[in-house]
Amino acid sequence: MTKPRKLSTMIDRRQFVYAGVAGLALGARIPKAFAATYDLLIKGGRVIDPSAGLDAVRDVAISGGKIVAVAENIPGDATETIDAQGKVITPGLIDIHTHAGLGKDGPPMCLQDGVTAWVDAGSGGADNIDQVAAVARGAPQTGRILVNIARTGVIAPGGELHDINMANVALAQGAIARHRDVVVGVKARLSNNVAGANDLEALRRAQEAAAPFNLPVMIHVGQNYSPMRSLLALLKRGDIVTHMYAPGANGILDEGGRLIPDVTAARRRGVLFDFGNGVADHFDWDSVEKATRQGFWPDTFSTDWNTKSKTTGVVDLPNVMSKFITFGMPLSQIVACATVNAARVFPSFDDRGTLNVGAPADVAIMELREGTFDFLDNYKATRTGHQRLFPVGTVLAGKSVPRA
After folding, report:
1. pLDDT confidence of 37, banded at 50, 70, 90?
2. What domains lie within the chain, and their CATH numbers?
3. At what angle do helices 199-210 and 169-178 cross, to 10 degrees?
4. What's the CA gap between 59 and 83, in Å, rounded?
5. What is the pLDDT of residue 16?
6. Any idea of the CA torsion for 303, 304, 307, 308, to the nearest 10 degrees?
7. 279 vs 11 pLDDT, higher one
8. Could you give the C-alpha distances from 126 to 58, 81, 100, 133, in angstroms and in order?
9. What CA–CA distance (Å, rounded) separates 257 from 246?
10. Which of 291, 229, 283 lies closest to 259 in space, CA to CA?
11. CA 344 to CA 354: how far, in whole Å?
């Protein structure tokens, strides 16, 4: 498959969009060649594209699987027209921490939620990565994989790294080489119930496995045996900390609720921090409140999704995004964390997360509904909000995805 041409207008993949981005006006001029017929025209939605600093009512025109215009009142006809008045239109959502690779039913379910690219974060290790890779290659949207440093992949409950011999560098490197087309990194689950006192050695081995391929490592943290500063010291630029707000011992906050200096230092040197909702011990409202009051917001949102997530506090990526509306995070920044910021984490997504002209026409259509909504943390505590995003449509490669 030919790699899509990297767009010259796109920002560097390490430049993340943060709160307070200035609204830049996107040119409304449409070349005459585009004024006749489009394959798909999305009319009159609130287009939020942080890659372009855009948050305004616009039309989006698509032809040949590409974005060809984003402007006010685009003239001309189209094979299909979507009336998006009252809807929020964003680049297709990118979920960098899922377990969608566990079965063929996962990717189509994600697609219904507006997720047009996903990463399976460590479901498979060297012993079972072939099955996960097959799901990624057969997915309707772009699917990528992080190889678990433990040869078994995730073992839950129980944990896969209590026996450090399961972290076999040679086998992990063989798995990466065998599936280099879909593997984008290495995963190490380092919470105490998964790795115990083996956490630092497991991370060293994950880095050793990733090094010849120049790949990032994602670490799952939470109630770690080792202090957070010890884990962060082993991370390089581009590595990812998921479950960033995990409460308890050895997290990002000290005993007084203050952000430890090592965390902000790690971010300054290019370590990325991912929300990673999940269902058990990954975040509570108190930890989020304390960290965000100190200005420590996520670089990316992810769900830790699986096919049972609809019945948990995860629900879907738009629901996870909505939780941060209640903390006062600007909607444009929330969208950035699930689009352009996520796209910058892995080179495979370099041309995604944007509605720039020439980009692949992956689009999420959502409703921002007003009301009273209860959101769950991992300890069944609720936080009430008055706005929530609901997925109502997806466009993949320029084609409208039928609703299930």
Report:
1. confident
2. 93-349 (3.20.20.140)
3. 40
4. 10
5. 66
6. -90
7. 279
8. 47, 46, 18, 11
9. 12
10. 291
11. 11
